[in-house]
Amino acid sequence: MASVIAVAIVYVWSSGIVNLLAKRKEFAVLLSIGWRPSQLNRLLFIESSIVGLVVAFISWIMQMNDGYTVRKMV
Description:
With 74 residues, the chain is mainly alpha-helical.
């Protein structure tokens, strides 16, 4: 289970950095039309949380499937 959490953390962190770099202009537009920085932070937190949950779920399924395959072969 720890490996699932580690994979999720690394993936969310790296995708978050790429996401921030790719959307810098969009963030500037949102701030210029009146969004508060707290609203932007909340948007980024929710987006990262969703990605993290999806990655954790997929990693968990892959780990469960791998264990089933090994047990079946023995």
